[in-house]
């Protein structure tokens, strides 16, 4: 016997929301939608963020937009040393970041 899906379909979410706004009890909503009260309660407690994942892991030092900006200037930068690239990176990215020379080389190797 498999597990039930973790999130409600959009139609079920709409039904639950409308019934809740009309003042229906949790017990009545669960009978109508045929889902348990313990499944409906988290949805009603957090309507805006229900079913949205939190970002996990460490954020990247350089965003994909910053990567594109660095790579776009790569014909100029590949002829220079990585320490020069490292020192001049703040000209091309939207925020100041500190990248090690190995990270700059890895960025160019990915392209």
Summarize the structure.
With 111 residues, the chain is mainly alpha-helical. Helix content is 53%, strand content 0%.
Strands, helices and their partners?
Blueprint: H1 10-21, H2 26-33, H3 37-45, H4 64-72, H5 74-77, H6 82-88, H7 101-110
Helix pairs in contact: 6-7
Account of the 3D structure:
Helices cover 53% and strands 0% of the residues. The protein is mostly helical and 111 residues long. It has 7 helices and no strands. The model has no long low-confidence stretch (mean pLDDT 75). It has 2 domains: 10-45; 64-110.
The helix/strand class is mainly alpha
Compute the separation of the termini in Å: 47 Å
Biggest sheet, open or closed, and with what strands and sense?
A: none
Cα shape: rod-shaped
Helix content: 40-55%
The Rg value, from CA coordinates, equals 25 Å
Strand content: under 5%
Low-confidence stretches: none
Subcellular location: Nucleus
Main location: nucleus
GO molecular function, one term: DNA binding
Domain Tc3 transposase DNA binding: 12-51
List keywords for this structure.
2 domains; 7 helices; mainly alpha; 53% helix; rod-shaped; single chain; 111 residues
């Amino acid at each position: 016997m498999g597990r039930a899906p973790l999130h409600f379909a959009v139609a079920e979410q709409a039904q639950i929301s409308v019934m809740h706004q009309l003042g229906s009890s949790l017990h009545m909503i669960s009978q109508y939608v045929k889902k348990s009260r313990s499944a409906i309660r988290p949805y009603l407690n957090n309507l805006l963020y229900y079913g949205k994942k939190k970002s996990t892991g460490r954020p990247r030092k350089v965003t994909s937009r910053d990567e594109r900006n660095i790579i776009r200037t790569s014909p100029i930068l590949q002829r220079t040393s990585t320490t020069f690239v490292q020192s001049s990176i703040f000209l091309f990215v939207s925020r100041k970041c500190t990248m090690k020379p190995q990270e700059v080389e890895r960025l160019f190797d990915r392209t």
